[in-house]
Amino acid sequence: MKKRAAHSTFTVSNTKYNRWKGVVKTKSRSDSLSGGNDYSCLVDKSWKKSKITRCVTYVRGSDALVVADYIDATKVKVPKKKRKNYKKREITQRWQIGPGIGVEGTDGQLTLVSGDQRVDVIKAGVGDWNLRSAAAGSSIGWHTTDWGVKAPGTVLSRSTIVPRKGDQQVMVTVFVPRGSGESVPVQIGDGTVTITRNGNPVTLGFPAP
Question: How many domains is the chain partitioned into structurally?
């Protein structure tokens, strides 16, 4: 489980990876003492010409997690004679779903299911959801549950293709836990998220660097 594919993180294909650059925390703040939210940001510069910043807000009043992933892919210089064979970068966001947890729903909103507990997963931004379950001969979807023991799970992912000239994109993912008979509507607008629990709407901006 030492590979990046075994974790809830990003991978970038068709570019170089520098493991020594790693991930750096750039922001961390908690307003829990006043009943406010928690904030944090991490920057991953491991991939050449592709910087990914993940910012997270824990919305205490709604018991929800808002994740904004900012993709900053810069231009790749390629000699004209080699541009025909240039392979565009594919940037993939992954979420590991543990053993015993089911997945239901449609592309815009998925629900993680375990017993009478639910977690709604709502997305906005680039990429469609792709679900892959663990299978023999594949490293995708396996979890370590004990020393030397692995159990099958699922990987929830979405990808975007970046042109050679570069691009800036955003992926927003909202996680909302609830009971099986409970409804917690989520609306994602232009730079904002509104979460309504028990009839009380809470609106906040996307977490940002």
Answer: 1
